[in-house]
Amino acid sequence: MTELTARGNLRSAAQGLCAQGLTVTAAGVTLVRDATFRLRPGELVTLLGPNGAGKTTLLRGAIGLKPCASGRARIDGQDTAHMVPRHRARRLAYLPQNRPLAWPNPVRDVVALGRFSHGAALGRLPGADRQAVERALTSCDLERLAGRSTATLSGGELARVHCARAFAAEAPLLIADEPVAELDPYHQFRVMDLIRDFVNRGGGALAVLHDVVLARRYADRFIWMKDGRIVADGPPAETLSASRLAEIYAVRGRVEGDRVEIEGPL
Amino acid sequence: MRIAFAALILACATALFAACLLGSTPMDVERVLAALTLGGDHGDRLVVLQIRLPRALTAFAVGVALGASGAALQGLLRNPLAGPGVLGISAMASLGATGALYYGFAALSAWAMPTAAIMGAFAGTALIALAALRTASVVTLVLIGVGLSSFAAAAMNLMMNLAPNPFSLADMINWMLGSVANRSLQDLGFAAPFLIMGLGILFAARRGLSALTLGEEAASGVGLNLRRQRLAIVIGAGLATGAAVALAGVIGFVGVVAPHIVRPMVDHDPARSLFPSALLAGLILVLADIGVRLMPTATELKLGVVAALVGAPAFVWIAMQRRSVHD
Predict the structure, then answer these.
(1) What pTM was estimated for this model as a whole?
(2) What's the gap in Å between the CA of B48 and the closest CA on chain A?
(3) Which residue from A minimizes the CA distance to B270?
(4) Superfamily classification of domain B55-326
């Protein structure tokens, strides 16, 4: 079991998330075919691929939110499809692509929902949960906004609230689907820094990104997807090339060392 | 917050007591207290224990059921316009109740009425929940509610059209208009098990409603069992609303308005809004029923009619306040 040490480091004996041969179909169409990947603690992986490549479907299938036609995914050896949602949530925090907030709750309450799997109820958080929420607020620089209604926040502030919500779970794994979509460059860096911090403390993070330059800057490993298949999986230096950009995105790009430049469509 | 909550409980108790106090036969506090503690004059006991108290308790129970159902449905559907009346659940329950009257089941057993109303409520809630699985749009759900209400109204009109005698016709109209007049403690007793079960389920499932604030996908991400949550709210709201309709017929809008008033006071947390919404809706109906009784009209106004007259404009106002960005 993973716990947080006094210094805020994630102590983990976890084996991470392990998906083998996942195939997901919907209405007769195969959205993801035979996908195999791993996410270990201590690494930041980005999942890259064009729109409609099946990235979100793969993530949903891997964490058991969507039934898989074949294959299986396990967290620390347990099948995600049959895991009790509460138990899964304690091991893996999930930040979906759509992040609606139905009510104008205070920031602190939204972050506290990250403790749902620990049995916390809003308004009367037990000490351990309250501390986790405060840590998450601090790490995302939200102390000043903690009492504000989410309806009054900017896009960048909201993105940090959602990150804090995910971090508050203090789960060893994080899956974030387009965490920096619709953010300005500064806030893209801020959110990625937060995820990097999480990984540096011992967590394992998988983030879907569309910005190859940003991904190159932060990721330890790339997983490339196209047409429902994983076409490459490895360190940026090995899997990122001009021909890969052409193959995946149909764009003309230049890759020199750790510098990436995208010049235009093919 | 705690003080407001205590004040609400106190207000409910006071209103219930006032309902025993006020009426066509004037009685002072001592006589009512004496009657409530099973002492005093025989006539007083009759008026207080057989007429006023059952009526006030029924109004309160109906309000509690509708307020809790409304708050829970709003949390589940993540929309302040949801409620048992708006979604057609009350109308379906009423259809069940009038059906029991029309076919004469109501005369056979005292359980027939609540059972039929609850079956109707279940049919309505199940349809709404089924639709909620397919669409995230609350507009669609409300439109389905309009359809359900229209269907229930048409079926009830058909039954009235074919009513065998004026007595059953009057009975049915009574149910459609909504009233707590002439209810006995026995009537309350037959609806109570369903009501208590429904409320119990809603309260047990309330924490999941907070998680749903994040949307369904993120809610299951933080560990909510979505299927179980939906089922619990649908069954809980169906039982509670069905029991309320079996007691009093259709009383609209109180289930929408009460949670709306409560929500800002509990930081917009649907879980914490459940209990205060139930109490506030109960309080509103007890007060409204006192008003109905005291109003110097030739025929007593029906509680359901008054609730709709006040509640419908409030509903429109809440709807106008909403910014379209939420859908």
Answers:
(1) 0.89
(2) 40
(3) A103
(4) ABC transporter involved in vitamin B12 uptake, BtuC (1.10.3470.10)
